[in-house]
Amino acid sequence: MNDSMGRVIDQLREAERVLVITGAGISADSGLPTYRGVGGLYNGHTEDGLPIEAALSGPMLQLNPALCWKYLAEIGRACVAAAPNAGHKAIAELQQRKPGCWLLTQNIDGFHLAAGSPPQRLIEIHGTLWPLFCTGCGRSSDDLTGHLSRPLPPRCDHCGGVLRPPVVLFDELLPEAGLNSLRAQQTQGFDVVLAVGTSASFAYILEPILRTRQNGGFTALIDPSGGELARMVDEHIAAAASDVLPQLVRHIFPD
Ligand SMILES: [Zn+2]
C-alpha cells in the first residue's frame, strides 16, 4: 500500500461526517458508457447532426420526443445491460457502517441504490433513468425495459402522453430537493470529502471540496486521470474506483 492510500484510510477511519461524490468514472468500471460522451459514440455530435447537448435536452423532449428518446434509449439500454460493481458496493458498505456518510452522485444509472446505499443519504443530483412518468398526467411507469423494446417515444397507457425519465436533461434545472439536501449537509460540514471518477466542472462538486479544505477537513480524489480536480485535493489516487474502494473499505473495517 502506498502513502496516499494509507493517508486516505486513516482519515476515513477517524471521520464521522463524510461526503462521497461519484461521477461517470465509477460506472465506467461496470462497462457503462459515460453520459455526455456515451463511450465516444457521439464525438460531440449525434448521427442526426446535432450536438448531444441539444438532442438530450428538455426543449428537444418537447419539440421532438422521438429524437430525444432515440438517445435516451441508448443510455437506457446500456444501463439495463450493466450492473453495480465492487466500487458501488464498497461505498454502500462504508455508508452502512458510517451513519454520517453521505453520497452525492452525478450518475443516472441507479447503481448506488441497487448496490445498497441508503436512499435517505443518497443525492442523485442528475436524477435517474427510471421509473418513467407521464408528461401529461404524471402517472409513473416502471417498465423501462419493456418500453425500450417498443416504438419510441414511450407513451402513457392512461392518456397517451409522452413518458420521460426523472433525469435532468441538458437545459433543465438541477432538482431543488437534492440541492437543498446537499446545502443542509454542507452547512453541518464534512470531515472528509472523497471524489470518485469525476471532474471539477460543476460548482456542486467544487464547493464541498473547497469548503472542507478551508475548514481543516481532508479531501481526496480516486480517478485514473484526475484533471484539474487532482490539484485541488489533499491526496490523488490515480487508479480505478472498482480496485481502490474495496481495498479502502477492507482496511478501514478489517473484521
Ligand atoms: Zn398520462
From TrEMBL:
SUPFAM superfamilies: DHS-like NAD/FAD-binding domain (SSF52467). InterPro entries: DHS-like_NAD/FAD-binding_dom (IPR029035), NAD-dep_sirtuin_deacylases (IPR050134), Sirtuin (IPR003000), Sirtuin_cat_small_dom_sf (IPR026591), Ssirtuin_cat_dom (IPR026590). Residues 1-255 form the Deacetylase sirtuin-type domain. Keywords: Metal-binding, NAD, Transferase, Zinc. Zn(2+) binds at C134, C137, C156, C159. The active site is at H126. Pfam families: SIR2. It is an enzyme of class 2 (transferase). PROSITE patterns: SIRTUIN. Its EC number is 2.3.1.286. GO terms for molecular function: histone deacetylase activity, NAD-dependent; metal ion binding; NAD+ binding. PANTHER family: NAD-DEPENDENT PROTEIN DEACYLASE, NAD-DEPENDENT PROTEIN DEACYLASE SIRTUIN-5, MITOCHONDRIAL-RELATED. This is protein acetyllysine N-acetyltransferase. It comes from Stutzerimonas zhaodongensis. The lineage of its organism: Bacteria, Pseudomonadati, Pseudomonadota, Gammaproteobacteria, Pseudomonadales.
